[in-house]
From TrEMBL:
GO biological process: isopentenyl diphosphate biosynthetic process, mevalonate pathway; sterol biosynthetic process
EC number assigned by the record: 4.1.1.33
InterPro entries: GHMP_kinase_C_sf (IPR036554), Mev_decarb (IPR005935), Mev_diP_decarb (IPR029765), MVD-like_N (IPR053859), Mvd1_C (IPR041431), Ribosomal_Su5_D2-typ_SF (IPR020568), Ribsml_uS5_D2-typ_fold_subgr (IPR014721)
Pfam family, any one: MDD_C
Keywords: ATP-binding, Lipid biosynthesis, Lipid metabolism, Lyase, Nucleotide-binding, Peroxisome, Steroid biosynthesis, Steroid metabolism, Sterol biosynthesis, Sterol metabolism
Protein's name according to its UniProt entry: Diphosphomevalonate decarboxylase
Record-linked SUPFAM superfamilies: GHMP Kinase, C-terminal domain, Ribosomal protein S5 domain 2-like
Catalytic activity: (R)-5-diphosphomevalonate + ATP = isopentenyl diphosphate + ADP + phosphate + CO2
C-alpha cells in the first residue's frame, strides 16, 4: 500500500495592537511586561494560509514560506512544534487508511507551506499571522483538543503578537503571572460583528531603511528604558481598563484617544532606549499631523492612528463615511505618481474609492485642500512617499479550509504545488 499523507489547510488573520506589547519579562517563554489589546484585520485582505502535512514517508520537518524553503530549526518554531506534538490525540481516517496513535506524533515528521496574501516586504505583521496559522493548523492536523486560548499560549511562544491572531474581532493578551507562562494567553473581548462600522486604512510607507526587529528592539528597551517601567506599571494597566470600556460601549472618541496615545508612548519608549530606536519616519509624522489637525478641527476624533515597529500607519476610521473623507485627505497629501493607476495604489476594499469620489488620477489631482488647512500656507503634496494603501476592516479569526484546491502542499507528494 502506498504511504498515506494527511494534510490540513488553515487561514489566519493578522492583528494590529491598539494597546501595545513592548518588552518581555521572560525571553524564551515570551512573557510580556504588560497586557495588550488588538483588533484582528479582515483576512480577506491580510492573512496567512498554511498547509501542514504528515506522512510516514517524510524524513524531516520542512517548511516553505512564500514558495521558498526556510529552516525550522529556530527555537521558536521548535517550541511550537514540541508543544503541539505533546497535545496530539489519536486520529483515524478509515477511507484513506490512516491511523495515527497519540504517541506517534513525536516521531512523525511534518511538512509546512505558508503563504501571505500581502507583500512580506511591506513590514506588515507577517509573523503574527504566520505563527498563529502554524499552531492552529498543526493542532487540527494532530487532532489536539485545546481551545483557542490554550492554542494562543502556544502561538505566543512563536511570536508574542501571534497569540492575539487566534481570535477575530477585539482581543486581549493577558500577561499572566505564572513563571511557566501557562496563564499568559489571549481572550476575545468582542467578535468582529460587535463594532462593524469601523474601517481600517493602512498606509504602506516607502522606506529602504533597515529596521531594528521587534525582538531586539524590545530587548534593548527592557535593558535601558526607565520610561518603559513607568509605562508597564502605571500607564498600561489603567489604559487597558479604559480600552475595554471603549470597545464594550463602541465609544470611538475614547478608543481613538487611547489608541493614539498608546502608539505615541510606545514610540517614546523606543526613543528612550539606548541606543534610541526610530521606527517612524517623516512620512509617518506627516500622517500623524494630518490626522491630529483634522480631529482637532472636527472637535472630536474621526480617525485613530497607530504605528508598529516600522513607518507604516494603521488608521482606524469611525465609519465608512469618515473613511471616505480620510482617503480623500490621504490621496490629497500623498498622491500616486502620475504613472500609477489607482487600482494598484488603493488595495483591499476598493469600494471606498468610489465613496470618496476618487476613482481616477484626475479626481485625485482635482481634490481641494481639506478645510482644516485652508488658512495655512499652501499644503505640501508628497507624491511617492506612500507605496500604496490597503482598505480593510476588523475581521474574523482562524478558519479551516476544506477545499483541497486551496492547499499549498500536493496531497500525493507532500511538496509545494
Ligand atoms: C510593536 O510579536 O513581533 O507590533 O514576541 O519578539 O516575536 P516577538 O515580537 P513581536 O512584537 C510586536 C510588537 C508590536 C506591538 C504589538 O503587536 O503589540
Amino acid at each position: 500500500m502506498a504511504e498515506w499523507i494527511h494534510t490540513v489547510t488553515a487561514r489566519t488573520p493578522t492583528n494590529i495592537a491598539v494597546i501595545k506589547y513592548w518588552g518581555k519579562r521572560d525571553e524564551s517563554l515570551i512573557l510580556p511586561v504588560n497586557d495588550s489589546i488588538s483588533v484582528t484585520l479582515d483576512p480577506q485582505h491580510l492573512c496567512t494560509t498554511t498547509t501542514v502535512a504528515v506522512s510516514p514517508s517524510f524524513d524531516q520537518d520542512r517548511m516553505w514560506l512564500n514558495g521558498k524553503e526556510i529552516s525550522l530549526s529556530g527555537g521558536r518554531y521548535q517550541n511550537c512544534l514540541r508543544e503541539i506534538r505533546a497535545r496530539g490525540e489519536d486520529f483515524e481516517d478509515k477511507e484513506k487508511g490512516i491511523k495515527i496513535a497519540k504517541q506517534d506524533w513525536q516521531k512523525l515528521r511534518v511538512h509546512v507551506a505558508s503563504y501571505n496574501n500581502f507583500p512580506t516586504a511591506a513590514g506588515l505583521a507577517s509573523s503574527a499571522a504566520g505563527l498563529a496559522c502554524l499552531v492552529f493548523a498543526l493542532a487540527k492536523l494532530m487532532n489536539a483538543k485545546e481551545d483557542a486560548s490554550q492554542l494562543s499560549a502556544i502561538a505566543r511562544q512563536g511570536s508574542g503578537s501571534a497569540c492575539r491572531s487566534l481570535y477575530g474581532g477585539f482581543v486581549k493578551w493577558i500577561m499572566g503571572k505564572e513563571v511557566n507562562g501557562s496563564d499568559s494567553l489571549a481572550v476575545q473581548l468582542a467578535d468582529e460583528n460587535h463594532w462593524d462600522d469601523l474601517v481600517i486604512i493602512i498606509a504602506v510607507v516607502s522606506s529602504r531603511q533597515k529596521e531594528t526587529s521587534s525582538t531586539t528592539g524590545m530587548r534593548d528597551t527592557v535593558e535601558t528604558s526607565i520610561l518603559l517601567q513607568h509605562r508597564a506599571r502605571e500607564v498600561v494597566p489603567k489604559r487597558i481598563v479604559k480600552m475595554e470600556e471603549a470597545i464594550r460601549n463602541r465609544n470611538f472618541s475614547l478608543f481613538a484617544q487611547l489608541a493614539c496615545a498608546d502608539s505615541n508612548q510606545f514610540h517614546a519608549v523606543c526613543l528612550d532606549t539606548c541606543p534610541p530606536i526610530f521606527y517612524m519616519n517623516d512620512t509617518s509624522h506627516r500622517i500623524i499631523s494630518c490626522i491630529e489637525k483634522w480631529n482637532r478641527f472636527e472637535e472630536s476624533p474621526q480617525v485613530a492612528y497607530t504605528f508598529d515597529a516600522g513607518p507604516n500607519a494603521v488608521l482606524i476610521a469611525r465609519n465608512r463615511k469618515t473613511a471616505a473623507l480620510l482617503l480623500q485627505r490621504l490621496l490629497y497629501f500623498f498622491p500616486p505618481s502620475a504613472d500609477t493607476d489607482m487600482g494598484s495604489y488603493v488595495l483591499g476594499d476598493k469600494s471606498i474609492l468610489k465613496d470618496a469620489g476618487v476613482e481616477g488620477i484626475n479626481d485625485v489631482q482635482a481634490l481641494p485642500p481639506p478645510p482644516e488647512i485652508k488658512d495655512n500656507v499652501p499644503a505640501q503634496r508628497n507624491g511617492g512617499e506612500v507605496s500604496y494603501f490597503i482598505c480593510t476592516r476588523p475581521g474574523r479569526g482562524p478558519l479551516l479550509l476544506s477545499d483541497e484546491s486551496l492547499a499549498l502542499l500536493d496531497h500525493s507528494t507532500g511538496l509545494p504545488k
